[in-house]
Amino acid sequence: MGEIKQNTGTKENKKTVRIFAAASFFNDLGSDIIYPVWPLFVTTVLGANMAVLGFLDGLGEALVSVSQAVSGYISDRIKKRKVFVWTGYLLGSASRVGYAFSSVWQSLIPFRILDRAGKIRSAPRDAIIADISTAGNRGANFGFLRAADNLGAVCGIVICLLLFNLIGYKNLFLLAAAPSAVGALLVIFLIKEKKGEKGIYKRLTLRDIDGNFKLFLLLSSFFALGSFSYSFLLIYAKTLGFRTVFIPALYLVQTAAAFLVSIPFGRLSDKIGRKKVILISFFLWGFVCLNCIFLKAYWTIFLAFVLYGAHKGAIEPVQKAFVSELAPERYRAGSLGAFQMVIGLCALPASLFAGLLWDRIGMEVPFYLSLILTAIATVMLFFVKEKRK
Known about the structure:
Blueprint: H1 10-34, H2 38-45, H3 50-78, H4 82-100, H5 108-117, H6 122-131, H7 138-190, H8 211-226, H9 231-239, H10 247-272, H11 274-294, H12 298-326, H13 332-360, H14 365-381
Helix pairs in contact: 1-7, 3-5, 3-6, 3-13, 4-5, 4-7, 6-13, 7-10, 7-12, 8-13, 8-14, 9-10, 10-11, 10-12, 11-12, 11-14
């Protein structure tokens, strides 16, 4: 593509990965200062029910999907990546200031839109990582990036635990705005971008992607329809008797587990293939659902969050590596964005429907539905063919 200085040596490529990892660390540090208390803020402080919480979380993921698709398409077309990355970090920072001054749940909607629109950074950044990687280290690079995300999240959660009772929601949200701004500055000043190569751009169409990619999109959609927001697990724990002050600690356990496994699973996918690691991630999520349906002791809640974190640490970096390999090389950013759009558009009905089932039938019902959809996705995955190295 020619957007970032590529193929100029391993050291420069490693430096680019490290800078993006550092920026991602700071962004997730800010995000996860508030994420542990987000569902409590929405449901207890602003008085929303589970359906509203599901709507807000699902809306956020749907917007993530659209923003990534749009930024990926435009990035491929104008042959620029960097501007989308630092702009996305600044949007996330600004949204947290808005959260701090919200007094009713309806006022969260525009700031939720702003927050998730910040994900315009993801597809262009992931395309850069894919471009400067090889088949032998692409999984490891995405795993390293995800590990930095999760390490930032761990630090953010610790800050939340230490400061929440001292400074309250408003000041906590204001504090969370600062790290993402730092991430934006790192990208602006340390990532080098050269002028894109000229040429006629042909937009990505379904004809440009093969059957494997289409099948993977379809099965990922089925899985996403059952993969509702983490907020449900936090409220589930609270429903079973966990005190509010300990809820962020469960989120910390989840994020720490994701941090610990992201790099190992990324490297494992380089060795044994992407499909096998994605299959492992599906099984981990299935165990989470079975745990929440049949086991309700305190220690099993802890186990559920460990398994959920391991699931996220396995699936997120490996999915990106797999998509970047299934997609046509010239359309990497657009393909990554399109993939995230499909997954994200499924997130809105997933979380909304899960909230409705929770409110009207019972809290175990969303987990039953998710098990069925995960089983369908698992069977379909066996028919996807990996490209040989």
